[in-house]
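Note to self: keep these together.
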Amino acid sequence: MKHGIAWNVAVYALLIAGSAIFSLPFVWMVSTSVKVDRELFAPGLNLLPSLPRPRLQSPYIDPSLVLEGLPETEPGIAGALLPLVRERAATVVPDDLPPATWEQDLCLAVCAKLRRSLPTETWNRGPEAVAAAAVPLVTTRLVSDLFGQIHRRLSFGPLRVRSLDRREEVLGNDRPVAERLQNLTPQVATVTRLADAAAEFASIRYDFSRGDRITLSETYRVGFPTDQLERVQLYLKPDDTWHQLDMTLETAGKRYRAEHRIPLANETWTMLTWQKPGPDDHSTKIKTWVLLHEEPTREPVLDEPSLVRLTLDIHRTSPLGACLSKITRNYTRVLEHIPFWRYVRVSLFLVIVNVVLTVFACSLVAYAFARLTWPGRNGCFLIMLATLMIPGQVTMIPHFLIWRRLGMYDTLLPLWLGHLFGNAFFIFLLRQFLKGIPRDLEDAARIDGCG
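Structure:
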């Protein structure tokens, strides 16, 4: 009895273990579908995605990506490297960041870099040996790269608009980037001008403990009729806080609002595009823009022929909202990039129509071959069977030429109308099935009054 129970327990344990092992690919697929770009290409095996962490203040320092997967660094080593890091970072770190907010984390990032490059023997000899070996390795460029990896700052570049006839303009091009949008919430955020070797951009410093929204707005004059405006583009570097960016456009007496908000995920420069409804929405091209919907309003709307008003709103999000946003982000991007539901509708239409027409046509022909007696029946049946010997590659081009001559090229008609004429293989199967039904059933049905 005990051996039987033990055997059953072992079998069930093996079944559970096998189920867990074979479910790993499914878990991996689901978890990967909610990862951001940096998690997809991160080294090592990372089964579960990281949790987003909305920050109340920005800019901020986040060394988690640099230190991920490494053992904890001894405080003595980080302290020994501090003077060297301070010296190298003097021309790298912005002046508006207090040393207390970045020194320790930058030292840890440098330690993580040295741990991967220095020999284990040097690392084990103590802080002094590590600090001496780090002098030629810890350069200003290295510190600059590491600081860029741990520093998060919300920044934006030029705003561009494009008309229907492909004319492009940079809005507020006569002003510095930081002054091209008016800050309507100074108690929450400040906008400052920054520049690097490549370009000029603006940085937003904010504190959501003082409010739940940042509003930047400005009215611009463009060189084409505003009713011809097609799209708006913003060059943006998110700060990975997962707060939500919304956009409102007022032009030609109408107000447009973005179809959905954009989460401030990742920390790399990206081009955001908003576009008014148009022919591109019904095409099969990859959709890389957020649609602008006309918003009914009773408030006065800008209605001058050469002026447009843009408003950017950054809404604070909660940790739960950030998690939901991360879960749905990749799925939303896929559904935006391709007309998925259009493909589903077309597929369902073709499946239903083809099945109905095939069953209808093949049933009529099979019944005629199986039950009706008419001259030349067997010869016609042999000719129909002979068509099964013709490869599809032989009839492909003639089929195309026939449908094109009938004026049905580039339509869905050739994908379903041909099934109205039956299919030789299905007709053969139905004929054999009908011949197996006794005729006595038909005679009995006629005697009972069946038509």
